[in-house]
Amino acid sequence: MSVELPLLARGKVREIYDASTPAAPDRLLLVASDRISAYDHVLPTPIPDKGRVLTQLSVWWFEQLTPVLESFGASHHLISATDVPDDVAGRAMLVRRLEMLPVECVARGYLSGSGTKEYARTGSIRDVALPAGLVEGSRLPAPVFTPSTKAEVGEHDEAIDFAAVVSAVGAGRAEELRELTLALYSRGAEIAEAAGIVLADTKFEFGLDGDELVLADEVLTPDSSRFWPASSWSPGAAQPSYDKQYVRDWLTNESGWDRTSTPPELPDDVVAATRERYVTAYEQLTGRSFA
């Protein structure tokens, strides 16, 4: 990929370029690569078309979630997914430059992953108490807000309690983030359920444009969410998924990797199966063919 714009930042899976012009200042170009990360490492093997899936699915979700955002007096950062350089068409978004808020806004509707481990130890996820008797894959009585820090590349996001969000952004903004995160999750879960997918959990990022709260980055993708086939959902064990859990499972159970040394190359069958899961999530959610 070649973009003739100033590179501002390179993250785990995307690059951010300065796309400002005198007529249109404060614009960024977000380009999603085919890189994939797991356990806070960028893996050496890309997943073909992954960046295009993430971008096109995010664009679709921004449209679906606009009514929820507007009901909170908020908006999203997308300006255009078509007015982008030809070399990155399909995997880039022209967006507003924002003052990003320093928290990951995580919503959970089901118990899974690190949430299951913490619940097993404490009966809660940070300051959110949960009922007894839940198991991996259990549906929660109501969606919960379980935020985390926003780590730099190579570092690990850490779960935080609501008081830490208040300390970071103020009491009023923290409450707004919690309410909007849960509203967006609930609407996303409703749409996913109609498409035969369980949205187990997801994370959102927000920024400010002046005083306006703005949904940013990617939204409800296989990189930022856990998607399970509704037809096979069965609490009590890890669930089949349409996200990068397949890669995590291979790394954990088959690769022998210690999670600290250089990650191994992914086998061809793992690459192909991961791509299939990402494309399936896109097609099943949107009702569109991925090309």
From TrEMBL:
<dbReference type="Pfam" id="PF01259">
    <property type="entry name" value="SAICAR_synt"/>
</dbReference>
<keyword id="KW-0436">Ligase</keyword>
<dbReference type="GO" id="GO:0005737">
    <property type="term" value="C:cytoplasm"/>
</dbReference>
<comment type="pathway">
    <text>Purine metabolism; IMP biosynthesis via de novo pathway; 5-amino-1-(5-phospho-D-ribosyl)imidazole-4-carboxamide from 5-amino-1-(5-phospho-D-ribosyl)imidazole-4-carboxylate: step 1/2.</text>
</comment>
<dbReference type="InterPro" id="IPR001636">
    <property type="entry name" value="SAICAR_synth"/>
</dbReference>
<keyword id="KW-0067">ATP-binding</keyword>
<dbReference type="InterPro" id="IPR028923">
    <property type="entry name" value="SAICAR_synt/ADE2_N"/>
</dbReference>
<dbReference type="GO" id="GO:0004639">
    <property type="term" value="F:phosphoribosylaminoimidazolesuccinocarboxamide synthase activity"/>
</dbReference>
<keyword id="KW-0658">Purine biosynthesis</keyword>
<feature type="domain" description="SAICAR synthetase/ADE2 N-terminal">
    <location>
        <begin position="8"/>
        <end position="261"/>
    </location>
</feature>
<protein>
    <recommendedName>
        <fullName>Phosphoribosylaminoimidazole-succinocarboxamide synthase</fullName>
        <ecNumber>6.3.2.6</ecNumber>
    </recommendedName>
</protein>
<comment type="similarity">
    <text>Belongs to the SAICAR synthetase family.</text>
</comment>
<dbReference type="GO" id="GO:0005524">
    <property type="term" value="F:ATP binding"/>
</dbReference>
<dbReference type="InterPro" id="IPR018236">
    <property type="entry name" value="SAICAR_synthetase_CS"/>
</dbReference>
<keyword id="KW-0547">Nucleotide-binding</keyword>
<dbReference type="GO" id="GO:0006189">
    <property type="term" value="P:'de novo' IMP biosynthetic process"/>
</dbReference>
